[in-house]
Request: fold
Amino acid sequence: MTPFTTDDLARFTDTLNGVITDGATPGGVIVCGTLDEEPHVLTAGVISEETGPLPPNGRTLYDIASLTKVVATWPLIGSALSDGLLELDAPVREALPPFAGEAPSGEATVRQLLSHTSGLRASTRLDHYRGADAPLHELLCREPVDRAPGTHQYINRGYILLGLVLTHLRGRPLDVLTHDLWRAAGMDDTLYGPVGRGPRVAPTEQRIPGTPRIWGAAHDDNAALLGGIAGHAGAFSTAADLAAYARRLLRGHRDGDPLGQWLRTSLVPQVPMEPGLGRGLGWIVAADGAVAYHHGWTGTSLYVAPANGRYIAVATNAVYCGAARTRIAPLRELALKTLCTS
Reply:
């Protein structure tokens, strides 16, 4: 294990303060550490204007957006594979309730959906299905594909399908399945929304000037249409819980338990993304598979480095600042660089 140094923590603090000063986010929390040390909790700024001068802390609840993919759907898919309920290279339609007729998108494999190489339509507008007379899994499977499988393009609808797969295979709603998963990992505050507005919950975006912000409800429109419970987005968590999840992954990787074995499998790049980065199963992988990470649109990130036993959880509500969300890039770049060069 490679402990974080005083210099590491100072750089994180300076960069977090810098992006807040730049107007990228009202505030944020970083929790980092290894399995051999107590977590380091770094905070700065405020939760929001609505919550007053209250600073965020490790238990401030954030909409984690697409981190839902790797915190909820990915581990549950791994469990279904381990239990023999699912085959990685089988068409996804085989794991869903049966229906007749052609289903071009339903021919995508579970591996392709996990690695964003399915060729499914990238634009996901579930509002177009309002009033349809068929279930959602059938509507999604019947969609034409945009391109031949194998090319990387980030696609939310694949994880929506995987969430429906899990509900069908286990016979329980996704929020029930994740509740058991998260509590077992020590993630006592993590849940699917909506959650009540309050000073512990970070608001996100104001869609129309002069109207209330989204606060305690899923920022993602498609997740909201699914009642806030979806395979691609909709979960709320804290920096402390994300760190607990990272430690669970690192322990599993070290001990070789089923979740750790699934992580090892998922760290193998399936397709290149850009120089030095590839897409594994769910995760982005860097440093030849030594580091895995994922971002959430709202301003969250999670990094794990099984090679040196380190993790970094970043929780912000940068989408609160609209287009300024992109200005948290220095913080994300520093986190990745720190794990890749240690």
